[in-house]
Amino acid sequence: MTRFGTYAMGAGMMLAIGTSATLLAMNSGIDTLREAAPVAAPALQSMPEPTPSPIAATTPVEMTAPAANPDFVVKRILDVPSPFTHGDHVWDDAGVPDGPIVITVDLQAQVLSVFRGGHEIGAAVILYGADEKPTPTGIYPITEKDADHVSNLYDAPMPYMLRLTNDGISIHGSDVEEGAATHGCIGVPTAFARKLFGTVKLGDRVIVTNGETMTLGDSIIA
Fold first, then answer.
1. Residues whose CB is less than 8 angstroms from the CB of residue 65 and which lie 6 or more positions away in sequence, other chains included
2. Minimal CA–CA distance to 174: which of 81, 87, 83, 106?
3. Total-model pTM
């Protein structure tokens, strides 16, 4: 009969095979099985218990949300005439300190607003893209300025053009009349477009939404 056992051997394990009985002789036709002297098992060496390293206590760190940039929080909203209809626009930057410019456009309200350091300094009723040529929503940097731009697709003047996309979407001066539409651009009254053109710089952001409104204290940029 064979016995299998395992014994510790250093850092590993080895399989030990021992013999428990040996066939010694046969006498008078009768098999006689004599027990062999037991084989001494190797002494087991005790391994020292590893001492766990002490775990340093940790102090939870309280995470706080970053404070909103005050330059992009609504601090003032212009008092616009009511009703604010096609062709209407207002501009009042008197006493407003220097600061970053952000333009917001809401297609549902059909209004463009200009903010400087969180203060609304201009607002105008707009034209936007018809159903087959919709104005895209999103956040766009102004990538080009051209006061005397003419569309190479429609051979139409686009005065005080501020380019938003590579495929031609821009803000520009237009005859803003009820029932009119654009090919995706944002049209504003030309007198307003001239003021806007002189105020913004390349890289200023334009946020185009559809049905999102803001009030005092709201963040301008999500």
1. none
2. 87
3. 0.69
